[in-house]
Specification:
With about 190 residues, the chain is mostly helical. It is about 65% helix and about 0% strand. The chain has 2 domains: about 1-45, Orthogonal Bundle (Arc Repressor Mutant, subunit A), CATH 1.10.10; about 55-185, Tetracycline Repressor, domain 2 (Orthogonal Bundle), CATH 1.10.357.10. The protein has helices at about 5-20, 30-35, 50-70, 75-95, 95-100, 115-135, 135-160, 170-185.
Length: about 190
């Protein structure tokens, strides 16, 4: 295994810094220093902090996509969908700052087309998985959008400390399994 490319090292170190100290701690100079590079080295790879944050978010979306893809293909499609949703949740919980950044209004996606592309890749991977169950692309896209939004909403509430038992949000995996079954049982076209 070769040496990690400098750009990848910068993004990895920036991700670790964001998770440990928050996004405000992520500056190009601080990341360069923490990566064992000159303080100016990140400027050769990123125009500004926004570019670096977009790269962090892009890699976070790639990890979500891999989590969805890595759901066990030997499971029946319904179990595989539940496993994929659980993997999505676990990935977000492992990196809550990155997850929040991915969906942050602070990143203008019109300035970061690679971030838009990574988001579409993750979402379309999820649609493909749902399509294994429904075998109808339009119905799959409709069901996937509902589940994607519900997953994001439940995770956002949980990460913000609002995933309480009183609200029925203490077990997101169980909630998402129930939602998946309900959405998949909906008549087509709703």
């Amino acid at each position: 295994m070769g040496e990690e490319p400098t750009r990848d090292r910068i993004v990895r170190v920036a991700t670790d810094l964001a998770e440990s100290d928050g996004l405000s701690a992520v500056t190009l100079r601080a990341v360069g220093s923490a990566a064992g590079l000159s303080r100016g080295a990140p400027y050769r790879h990123f125009r500004d902090k926004s570019d670096l944050l977009a790269a962090i978010a892009e890699q976070g979306l790639a990890r979500i996509r891999r989590a969805i893809l890595n759901s066990d293909p030997s499971l029946d499609p319904g179990q595989r969908l539940s496993a994929a949703l659980s993997a999505y949740v676990a990935t977000a919980r492992a990196e809550p700052v990155v997850y929040t950044l991915i969906f942050s209004a602070d990143l203008a996606t019109d300035h970061h087309p690679e971030l838009v592309s990574a988001g579409l890749d993750a979402y379309n991977t999820f649609v493909d998985l749902v399509d294994e169950l429904l075998h109808d692309r339009d119905a799959s896209r409709s069901a996937a959008s509902k589940l994607w939004a519900a997953t994001h909403g439940a995770l956002t509430l949980s990460l913000a400390g609002h995933g309480t038992k009183e609200k029925g949000l203490d077990d997101i995996d169980a909630l998402l399994r129930e939602l998946a079954l309900a959405v998949l049982a909906m008549p087509r076209g709703t």
